């Protein structure tokens, strides 16, 4: 692993603005990282690469919520109020209040991340309501949110004696009513050992899909652009995005954002259960997915900033949080160079 860079290339505000602008263009599909203009921008100044790293970290905090209309409106309103307040606080006596400035891209991303950090219940709650059609009014007897931080796992016994195991950096919303048990996996991974209650189906929303059971044991993981549903025992029904699939014990469903569903027999149950024993089990997983899993368990964040590594697939079993062993294995097995940017960030590139 290469040594930490000297701090002589720390980005200024303009570089951060430009990096955020490129990142927003990538997300919209307007350009790709292979664009000659983007590559020329990177090479123009060493600080540009550092600025892009910091912009990606801010965007990574937001995840899927960054593109939601609710958060976009909230971010815009908050930035407008903050900008106006800052300008008016120091205006000369008798001067007219300043009009809101157009937020800069970098500040917009950072402010949106701050909004989520400060008021997660408000933002996420709004998204939860916005994504679902109107349903008959029901009196809920319990409504809770369970979440874990990096490197933290948690086991909770719910009101009906269902056992919920929550992986690191994960969140679940639980809403128990008189005729249903409604949950939503907001992020990360969870294992459910469902108490049988035929009068109240147990349903977990994940993206545009709903996974329903009466009494069973299953695992759901949200990673990259996919959701993996692995059934250990019992039976599940998966609906949503115009699909309806039954899942039997030992099967795994891959749910994609496009609405596609892939059902596989003979799921690797040991792999799906490994996180509950403090291990990360990788079996031909793309590098981006492997990195996303390892990032749940350590404050040291790993980022892949080289499209030449897109086709790299990883296999092996690692102790959760053992970043040094994981990165060392990558460097030994592949043409990968790991650079320690600072105490909390490692960047992976193809070795030249």
Give a quick rundown of the structure:
This protein has nine helices and 19 strands. The protein has helices at residues 13-28, 36-44, 46-62, 69-89, 105-118, 120-130, 269-273, 287-295, 323-333; strands at residues 140-147, 154-157, 163-166, 171-177, 181-187, 189-193, 202-206, 209-213, 217-223, 226-233, 235-240, 243-248, 252-256, 261-264, 279-286, 301-304, 313-319, 336-342, 345-350.
Your description of this structure?
With 352 residues, this protein is an alpha+beta fold. The chain has 3 domains: 7-131, no CATH class; 140-272, Sandwich (Jelly Rolls); 278-350, Phage tail protein beta-alpha-beta fold (3-Layer(bab) Sandwich). The protein is 32% helix and 32% strand. It has helices at residues 13-28, 36-44, 46-62, 69-89, 105-118, 120-130, 269-273, 287-295, 323-333; strands at 140-147, 154-157, 163-166, 171-177, 181-187, 189-193, 202-206, 209-213, 217-223, 226-233, 235-240, 243-248, 252-256, 261-264, 279-286, 301-304, 313-319, 336-342, 345-350. The strands form 4 sheets. A 7-stranded mixed β-sheet has the order 1-4-5-7-8-11-12, with no helix packed on it. Helix 4 crosses helix 5 and helix 5 (105-118) packs across helix 6. It is elongated. The protein starts with 12 loop residues before the first helix and ends with a strand. The model is unreliable at 3-9, 61-103 and 111-142 (pLDDT under 50).
């Amino acid at each position: 692993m290469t040594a930490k860079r000297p701090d002589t290339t720390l980005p200024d505000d303009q570089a951060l603005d430009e990096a955020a602008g490129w990142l927003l263009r990538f997300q919209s599909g307007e350009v790709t990282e292979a664009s000659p203009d983007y590559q020329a921008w990177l090479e123009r100044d060493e600080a540009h690469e550092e600025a892009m790293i910091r912009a990606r970290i801010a965007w990574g905090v937001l995840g899927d919520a960054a593109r939601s209309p609710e958060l976009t409106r909230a971010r815009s309103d908050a930035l407008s109020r903050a900008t106006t307040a800052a300008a008016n606080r120091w205006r000369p006596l008798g001067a007219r209040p300043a009009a809101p400035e157009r937020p800069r891209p970098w500040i917009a991303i950072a402010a949106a991340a701050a909004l989520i950090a400060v008021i997660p219940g408000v933002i996420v709650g709004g998204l939860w309501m916005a994504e679902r059609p109107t349903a008959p009014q029901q009196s809920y007897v319990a409504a809770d949110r369970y979440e874990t931080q990096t490197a933290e796992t948690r086991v909770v016994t719910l009101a009906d004696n269902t056992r919920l195991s929550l992986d690191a950096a994960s969140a679940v919303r639980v809403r128990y009513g008189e005729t249903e048990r409604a949950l939503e996996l907001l992020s990360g991974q969870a294992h459910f050992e469902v108490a049988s209650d035929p009068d109240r189906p147990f349903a977990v929303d994940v993206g545009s899909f709903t996974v329903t059971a009466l009494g069973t044991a299953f695992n759901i993981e949200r990673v990259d652009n996919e959701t993996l549903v692995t059934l250990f025992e019992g039976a599940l029904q998966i609906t949503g995005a115009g699909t309806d699939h039954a899942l039997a014990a030992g099967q795994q469903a891959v749910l994609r954002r496009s609405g596609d569903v892939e059902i596989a027999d003979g799921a690797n149950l040991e792999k799906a259960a490994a996180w509950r024993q403090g291990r990360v089990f990788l079996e031909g997983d793309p590098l981006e997915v492997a990195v996303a899993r390892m990032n749940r368990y350590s404050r040291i964040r790993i980022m892949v900033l080289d499209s030449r590594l897109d086709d790299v697939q990883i296999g092996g079993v690692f102790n959760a949080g053992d970043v040094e062993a994981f990165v060392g294995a990558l460097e030994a097995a592949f043409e990968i160079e790991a650079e320690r940017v600072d105490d909390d960030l490692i960047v992976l590139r193809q070795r030249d």
